[in-house]
Specification:
With 199 residues, the protein is mainly beta. It has 2 domains: 5-57, no CATH class; 112-198, Immunoglobulin-like (Sandwich). Helix content is 9%, strand content 35%. It contains 2 helices and 11 strands; from the N terminus they run ββαββαβββββββ. It has a 4-stranded antiparallel beta sheet, with no helix packed on it. A 4-stranded antiparallel beta sheet has the order 8-7-10-11, with no helix packed on it. Strand 1 and strand 2 form a beta hairpin. The longest helix has 11 residues, at 97-107. The protein is globular. The two termini are 31 Å apart. The model is unreliable at 79-93 (pLDDT under 50).
Length: 199
C-alpha cells in the first residue's frame, strides 16, 4: 500500500513509510534489534510481523494486508418529508454542504489550509511550528516526509478543538531539500499537506 506506515517494535523514532509503490527497505541492523514490525495503512487491518532472521538476505518480500471491515457510526437522517418503507443510510461521517465547499476550496487553493508550518524554510537542527486550525475536533497525526516518501519525524496532537500549535523537531542529520508535513485526522482519515524547505 502506498505510504503504509512501518514501525520497528514500539519505538516511535524507528518509524518509516512505504513509497508510492508500497515498497520500503530497512537497515538490517535495525531489523535485527527489533522483535516485530507493526504495519498500518488507512482502510486496512493493522498487521504485526515477528522479525524473521531470513529477512537479512537482501531478498524482496511481499507483505499482504487485509482490507478493514467498515465500522460505520450511527446516522441520524433528518427530513421534512415523510419516508415510506425501509430507509438504509450508510455514512462514514456527518457531512454538510459547508464542509464539502470548504474542502473543495482548500483543495483548489482558494481557501486557507487548516495546516500552517513556519518558519519556512527552516534550518537543520531547528524546529518548525505546526499550527492547526482544526476543521473537526479530534486527534491528529503530524508526519514529516522526505520528497521520496520516507517518514522522517512524527508527533500526535490529541484533543484538538479549534486552534493548536506544536513544535516539530528537524533533525541535524537529514539532507537539505524539500519535505512535506502531512496532517491526518485520525477518526476521518482526512489529510492536509504543506511543503517545507530544509536548509
Amino acid at each position: 500500500m502506498s505510504w503504509a506506515s512501518i514501525r520497528l517494535g514500539k519505538d516511535k523514532k524507528k518509524e518509516l513509510a512505504a513509497d508510492k509503490e508500497g515498497k520500503f527497505s530497512i537497515d538490517a541492523k535495525l531489523v535485527n534489534r527489533a522483535l516485530a514490525l507493526d504495519i498500518t495503512a488507512v482502510g486496512y487491518e493493522p498487521r504485526t510481523l515477528v522479525v524473521n532472521k531470513s529477512w537479512m538476505d537482501g531478498q524482496e518480500w511481499t507483505i499482504e494486508l487485509t482490507r478493514a471491515a467498515a465500522e460505520l457510526p450511527p446516522v441520524t437522517v433528518v427530513s421534512n418529508r415523510t419516508v415510506v418503507g425501509k430507509l438504509t443510510a450508510i455514512c462514514t461521517q456527518t457531512v454538510t454542504v459547508k464542509d464539502i465547499v470548504r474542502d473543495t476550496l482548500t483543495f483548489l487553493g482558494l481557501a486557507p489550509n487548516p495546516l500552517t508550518v513556519y518558519p519556512n524554510p527552516v534550518a537543520k537542527g531547528a524546529a518548525v511550528t505546526v499550527s492547526v486550525k482544526a476543521p473537526r475536533p479530534g486527534n491528529y497525526m503530524v508526519q514529516l516526509f522526505s520528497s521520496g516518501g520516507a517518514l522522517v519525524e512524527s508527533l500526535r496532537m490529541e484533543g484538538v478543538d479549534g486552534a493548536k500549535t506544536e513544535l516539530l523537531d528537524i533533525s541535524e542529520t537529514i539532507a537539505a531539500g524539500l519535505y512535506f508535513v502531512r496532517l491526518t485526522h485520525e477518526e476521518t482519515g482526512k489529510v492536509y499537506t504543506q511543503k517545507v524547505m530544509v536548509l
